[in-house]
Amino acid sequence: MAITWRAVALAALGIVAVLVVPVPGTVLLWAVVVAVACALDAGLAASPRLVAVTRTLPGSVRLTQSATSMVTVTNVGPRRLRATVRDAWQPSAGPGPNRHQVDVPPGDGRRLVTSLVPTRRGDRHADRVTIRTVGPLGLAGRQVSLDVPATLRVLPEFASRRHLPSRLARLRELDGRAAVQLRGAGTEFDSLREYVIGDDVRSIDWRATARRNDVVVRTWRPERDRRVLIVLDTSRTSAARVLDAPRLDASIEAALLLAALASRAGDRVELVAFDRRVRARVAGVSGPRLMPAIADALAGVEPTLVETDWPGAVEVVRARLTQRSLVVLLTTL
Asked: How far is the C-alpha of 160 from the C-alpha of 164, rounded, in Å?
């Protein structure tokens, strides 16, 4: 049985009775009255066990963005349900006001919404749903805590995506799709053309110049369809904090930005998070499915207090790569 502030106030009124009739029997009599009233009120309250409870969540949310936890309570009992419902979450899920007052007739239901603003990556687990019913007098009631499992997947914030427009514009320049004429950039030889003012003198082809009796330069095109492997170090050094976040979070931001740019450039991207063993891996995914796959894989990665097994990391890289590739190592020095 759970009592309310009204039961406390009723018991406090006994002071007046004691002052009027100052005998020991008055206290005992008033205590019996309060106990009987509370027991009767609790007996008339709806049973919290005759309440069907479900919890609905989005599949995932980015760090610092808001999500909603929707709890649906259905009164399957014969009495009117007057209750307080608490939708409990672990603190890192960032729950807002989570106590809801409900008044539900028999056979009816209510939807209760709790706002969540997570403060950490990973899986945020819901706690129990507590239902405290009260009787018609509001003196006492009954309480039960129900297990309603739910998990909210909190993805990395990817704050560095604000840099994507400028970096993608640079990629378009390299591809020749932008209006800007870019000279001397790229990694693969394309063709020869006459030198114009502003060209990099390092791109002059002196042999071709000697044959043509005119200054000519090499032009380059960016290499495409490369294989890019991002290796993320999750050892103890990644646990050091920079401002309010571990260094690992900065590495995750860099990995997401690099993967987005490489994917837009037409490269094949893979990712491995490693310390003494593989903590996360993304391979064989491309196109619009790549970034969600990387974000989901890195959501639950946390620093581990061990030294990195660098020979093991090299073996993992060699096992993944069978051709010329670009390997990017994200670690702390």
From this structure: 8
DSSP 204: B
Question: Same domain, yes or no, for 15 and 119?
Answer: yes
The pLDDT confidence band at residue 322, using thresholds 50, 70 and 90, is confident
Q: Which two tokens stand for residue 309?
A: 């097994």
For the chain, state the CA radius of gyration.
33
pLDDT digits (tens, 9 = 90+) for 251-274: 999 999 999 988 888 888 999 999
Domain residues for the domain of 206 are: 161-169+176-221
Note the pLDDT of residue 210: 83
User: What's residue 149's pLDDT?
Assistant: 92
CB 207 within 8 A of CB 160: no
Which helix (H) or strand (E) is 163 found in, with range?
A: none
> Does one domain contain both 7 and 149?
yes
Question: Cα–Cα distance between 256 and 69 in angstroms, integer?
Answer: 28
Asked if residue 181 and residue 149 are part of one domain, the reply reads no
Closest CA to 131 of 13, 68, 51, 208: 51
Angle separating helix axes 290-299 and 247-264, nearest 10 degrees: 170
Looking at residue 116, the DSSP 8-state letter turns out to be E
214 and 109 part of one domain: no
Q: Distance between CA 317 and CA 320 in Å, rounded?
A: 5
How many domains does one find in the chain?
3
pLDDT category of residue 189 using cuts at 50, 70 and 90 = low
Three-state DSSP class for 139? coil
Residue 46 and residue 197: Cα distance in Å, rounded?
Answer: 88
Q: Which helix (H) or strand (E) holds 279?
A: strand 278-282
Contact 54, 72 (CB under 8 A): yes
Mean pLDDT of the region 117-144: 90
* Same-domain check for residues 229 and 98: no
Report which DSSP code applies to 78.
Answer: S
Q: Taking the alpha carbons of 152, 155, 156, 159 in that order, is the dihedral positive or negative?
A: negative
What does the block give as tokens for 246?
Answer: 């571990």
Structure tokens at 69: 């936890």
For residue 179, pLDDT beyond 50: no
Domain shared by 98 and 200, yes or no: no
